[in-house]
Write a structure and sequence with these properties.
Pfam families: zf-CGNR
Helix content: 55-70%
Strand order of the largest sheet: 1-2
Strand content: 5-15%
CATH superfamily: Jann2411-like domain
Number of domains: 1
Oligomer: single chain
InterPro entries: ABATE (IPR010852), ABATE_dom_sf (IPR023286), Znf_CGNR (IPR021005)
Structural class: mainly alpha
CATH architecture: Orthogonal Bundle
Protein name: Zinc finger CGNR domain-containing protein
Radius of gyration: 23 Å
Largest sheet: 2 strands, antiparallel
CATH class: Mainly Alpha
Shape: globular
């Protein structure tokens, strides 16, 4: 198979593409204690990684540990807090900046992991930190957030302009609006006729 063009590679591995991969992996890796390696491999392929991929349970465990740390960045409510979380991860979990072409298989690009053969968990943490750092730098705001739906809690990205997001998807936002409407309707309907009569009787006469 011919190697992909530089333009194609750069599109699949752009900052935003990498950040989208980060959010998808954080959600998949933290949804359960022992994620399925095959499912994580499919997710990596869907987000531009070259195959075939054969992940072990240990590989995925390392990636899950990184995902739990990355959630701290998404949970930050203010840009200063997000920057602090990223600085901790950059200091504790990544190496010095280096350039790699993967022995000519890709255009030269920056890495923060220690080696091209670094463990999956190290690679995931380092590449995610780089992408989220650039998003924070460009937007001067947290690069993502946590869904406000009590039944969800997935992470999401905050890219582009527009109002502040509270939910990871339109689906979650709609579900919470419907639930709030039902609660309000149920509260209004809980007033019985007798309670309304008592309220009327207690009301002062003009």
């Amino acid at each position: 198979m011919p190697s992909p063009s530089n333009d194609d590679w750069s599109t699949r591995h752009s900052v935003r593409a990498t950040a989208r991969r980060t959010a998808a992996l954080v959600n998949a890796l933290t949804a359960e204690p022992e994620p399925d390696p095959a499912a994580i491999a499919v997710l990596l392929l869907d987000h531009g990684e070259s195959g075939p991929l054969e992940l072990t349970a240990d590989d995925v465990a390392g990636m899950r540990a990184a995902a739990l740390r990355l959630r701290e960045v998404f949970a930050a409510g203010h840009v200063d807090e997000a920057a602090g979380a990223l600085n901790r991860l950059l200091r504790e979990g990544t190496g010095p900046l280096r350039l790699s072409s993967h022995n000519g298989a890709s255009p030269w690009h920056p890495h923060l992991d220690s080696d091209d053969e670094a463990p999956w968990g190290e690679w995931f943490l380092a590449s995610s930190c780089m992408a989220l750092t650039v998003l924070l730098w460009e937007g001067q705001r947290p690069p993502g957030g946590l869904c406000s739906s009590p039944s969800c809690g997935d992470v999401f990205l905050t890219v582009g302009s527009g109002p502040e997001r509270r939910y990871c998807s339109r689906r979650c936002a709609t579900r919470e609006r419907v639930a709030a409407h039902r609660r309000a309707k149920a509260g209004a309907g809980s007033r019985t006729p007798s309670s309304r009569l008592r309220e009327n009787a207690a009301a002062p006469t003009p």
